[in-house]
């Protein structure tokens, strides 16, 4: 196979350009620079326009990543409970409530779905993936303010474990939703005429 590809006996890194790709990063027979991500692939054929992500695919990803972040946050909650972390937080005007296990399980799922619905508004925009990633990151950092801005009677163990749950949710949900939305950016698909 190496002989057929024209790479037989050549040192690594000096491959012969294929007839499909032309010179690296350029369409065969032209001097126009192509910036599509698939041009450096071994199979330089881009995804069809029908592969643009839909709201349904975003919701599916939100449900999967939100459920996993809820499950992992529940594991953190149970471990914290085993070690005696009270998970008492202040809401409103000095009313202390205990964080329930059901809230720990469901809130990441609901927030992932809401985030995916909002991210679907960015589909088709230039740099949509980066836009969704950074807005999601700013929202995640802002959501950490609630656990950290508790009065002195709330223990730091509770605050830290709640922030860990926020980080778990950010780590699982935001990059995945941003990657899916990024697949809808202009130039991310190859319009085929076949």
The gist of it:
With 194 residues, this protein is mainly α.
Question: How is this structure best described in words?
Answer:
This protein starts with a helix and ends in a 12-residue tail after the last helix. The longest helix has 28 residues. The protein has a domain of 129 residues. A two-stranded antiparallel sheet has the order 1-2. With 194 residues, it is mainly alpha-helical. β1 and β2 form a beta hairpin. The chain is elongated. Helices cover 51% and strands 4% of the residues. α2 packs antiparallel against α6, α3 runs parallel beside α6 and α4 runs antiparallel to α6.
Question: In terms of quaternary structure, what is this?
Answer: single chain
Count of discrete alpha- or pi-helical segments spanning 4 or more residues: 6
Strand order of the largest sheet: 1-2
- What's the alpha carbon Rg, rounded to whole Å? 24 Å
- Main sheet properties: 2 strands, antiparallel
Secondary-structure-derived class: mainly alpha
Q: What is the arithmetic mean of pLDDT?
A: 82
| Helical fraction | 40-55%
Strand content: under 5%
Please state the overall shape, judged from the principal axes of the Cα atoms: elongated
Residue windows where pLDDT falls under 50 for at least 5 positions: 1-8, 14-32
Descriptive terms for the model:
elongated; mainly alpha; 194 residues; 2 strands
Describe how the helices and strands are arranged.
Layout: H1 2-5, H2 55-82, E1 88-91, E2 95-98, H3 101-119, H4 128-143, H5 145-148, H6 156-182
Antiparallel strand pairs: 1-2
Helix pairs in contact: 2-3, 2-6, 3-6, 4-6
